[in-house]
């Protein structure tokens, strides 16, 4: 989306959008982002597991990672690619994203993730559309999380 925001043919906010180096948070330890990479898998019934694994190794190699980043602008898996001169030239804002990536965490595996996404998207959209104030939207998400647990531990607000 960043590239589109700076495309004069598609955007009315060219030059007004930036990637944050530091994420705002109440406490420094909360200033984190989630990594949401796509994943490869090998079906349990695969008759070519070794070949499938070789394909996965090839696709997640640093060379292919840079190629995907260059060709389609996908965020790199390898952290040093955020400062790769070729990529930074094409995507200067990746320097800030690389800083954010230092404080990233993987997505928690919970069975209610789909519900969380739906609740969050709806609440945020209602706030953006002015149908709900921001605090009410945040409170709704917090109330949902307060009812849930991760690995048997209740979440807190």
Account of the 3D structure:
With 157 residues, the protein is mostly helical. The protein is 44% helix and 6% strand. The protein contains 7 helices and 4 strands. It has helices spanning 2-5, 49-59, 62-72, 85-90, 94-101, 113-128, 134-146, and strands spanning 33-35, 104-106, 149-150, 153-154. The strands form 2 sheets. Strands 1-2 form a two-stranded parallel sheet. Strands 3-4 form a two-stranded antiparallel ribbon. Strand 3 and strand 4 (153-154) form a beta hairpin. The chain is globular, with a radius of gyration of 19 Å. The model has no long low-confidence stretch (mean pLDDT 85).
In short:
This protein is mainly α and 157 residues long. 44% of the residues lie in helices and 6% in strands.
Rg result: 19 Å
Largest sheet: 2 strands, parallel
**How many distinct beta strands?**
4
Distance between the termini: 30 Å
Sequence of secondary-structure elements = HEHHHHEHHEE
**Beta content:** 5-15%
The averaged pLDDT comes out at 85
Poorly predicted regions: none
Q: Order of strands in the sheet with the most strands?
A: 1-2
Q: What is the helix tally?
A: 7
Query: Percentage of helical residues?
Result: 40-55%
Shape: globular
Structural class: mainly alpha
């Amino acid at each position: 989306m960043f590239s589109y925001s700076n495309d004069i043919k598609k955007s009315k906010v060219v030059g007004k959008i930036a990637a944050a180096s530091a994420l705002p948070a109440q406490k420094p330890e909360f200033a984190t982002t989630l990594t949401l990479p796509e994943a490869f898998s090998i079906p349990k019934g695969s008759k070519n597991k070794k070949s499938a694994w070789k394909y996965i190794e090839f696709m997640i190699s640093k060379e292919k990672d840079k190629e995907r980043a260059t060709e389609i602008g996908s965020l790199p898996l390898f952290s040093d690619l955020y400062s790769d001169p070729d990529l930074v030239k094409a995507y200067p804002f990746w320097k800030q994203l690389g800083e954010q990536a230092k404080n990233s965490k993987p997505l928690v595996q919970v069975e209610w993730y789909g519900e969380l996404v739906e609740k969050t998207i709806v609440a945020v959209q209602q706030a953006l559309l002015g149908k709900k104030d921001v605090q009410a939207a945040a409170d709704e998400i917090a109330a949902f999380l307060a009812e849930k647990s991760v690995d048997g531990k209740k979440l807190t607000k």
